[in-house]
Amino acid sequence: MMTYDEFKANVSTDVLNYLPGGADEWIAGVKPIRKTNQILDGLLILRTNQETEKVACPIIYLEQCYKYIKEGAHSYENVLESIADGYLKELKAHEQIVDKADICKESASDHLFCTVINVEKNEKLLACTPHQIKHGLAIICKWLFSKDEDGLVTALVNEGIMKEQLNMDEDEMFSLAMKNTKRMFPTKICPICVSVEKTLERMGMPKEMIKKAVKEITPENDMFVVSNDIGQNGAINFLYDETLLRLSDIMKGNFYILPSSIHEVIAVRDPNKYTGYSEQVARNMLETVMEVNKTEVSAPDFLSDSVYYYEWLSEKMTIKKASTQQ
Questions:
Q1: Got the DSSP string for 158-200?
Q2: Most distant CA pair in the chain: distance in Å?
Q3: Is residue 310 a contact partner of residue 247, using CB atoms and an 8 Å limit?
Q4: Which of 64, 68, 235, 312 is the most exposed place for a label (fewest CB within 10 A)?
């Protein structure tokens, strides 16, 4: 019988064969989902052609799915079929919520917000989606339909929605969306030790074990997680000038930024503090980012194979990419 780790490693690829159109129409990935007092493995499935789609993404929890295999109630293939069928039914229900929503200029202040995505992997989407480029990443607008412990139900704001339903131009829309984002999803910066400690607490780890684990990570004032108050779509926060100034004040010097996912980034104090950008340090950090992206980050959550360096006195951002340096 396959182990849970084997199930988790293969399900995001194999389930695509049970969806209409297969891998040409869908992408999938597994990510930890924060629930009350626990963290579960959630399977996220998205259509590949989202430029013309409203994003409605039900979450399939893998622990329960694997339980059927472990208990011998269903075969692996039966579980894959059940996941696909259940997902399509949930997707239809989500899309009905979206269809009933009133996307209009009058209600934009409560629903319109910004997030950030990778440019290269979203060329087709960006071709028909209003966007702004900052530090090599694309800022796009979304419409929020609902928010609960399972996540956000949103729609991508494409050219048609912007012009026909919101009746806005790009400058007006992005100005309002950015203002809304900072209010709806406030920036959260915390030491990585605190972030790890809270995660382990939700997993039910004993306090003494947590203290021991946290001590072995890193000095508390060297690494910080930058996101928002809900930990979703929070990477955009490092693009705010005020966030960089806050980090500069915390770090008391220059720092690197490692893009963890579209949900968060990690700010790392420059070990040389004031001497400036180091090609060797950036290269080492880039190798770490690329390895984590390859092995740990699901396709829908990928942000960038880059490392960013911020000089606090000049307020200058340097970008180290996989192939070139900017």
A1: -HHIIIIIS---HHHHHHHHHHHHHHHS-EEEEEHHHHHHHHH
A2: 63
A3: yes
A4: 64
CA distance 196 to 92: 36
CA distances to 8, 75, 84, 85 from 20, rounded to whole Å, are 22, 21, 9, 10
Kindly give, in sequence order, each residue whose CB lies less than 8 Å from that of residue 49, ignoring residues fewer than 6 positions away: 25, 124
How far is residue 303's CA from residue 284's CA, in Å, rounded to a whole number? Answer: 18
Report if pTM > 0.70.
yes
Whether 37 has a pLDDT exceeding 50, the answer reads no
Which of 5-9, 69-73, 93-97 shows the lowest mean pLDDT across its residues?
93-97
Copy the structure tokens of residue 278.
């180091």
Between helix 76-100 and helix 4-14 the angle, nearest 10°, is 60
H helix count then E strand count, the chain:
11, 13
Three-state DSSP state, 3: coil
What is the H or E stretch that residue 92 is in?
helix 76-100
CA distance 47 to 49: 6
Cα–Cα distances in angstroms (integers) from residue 34 to residues 15, 199, 253, in the given order: 23, 9, 33
Judged by DSSP in three states, 125 sits in: helix
Helix (H, G, I), strand (E, B) or coil at 154: strand
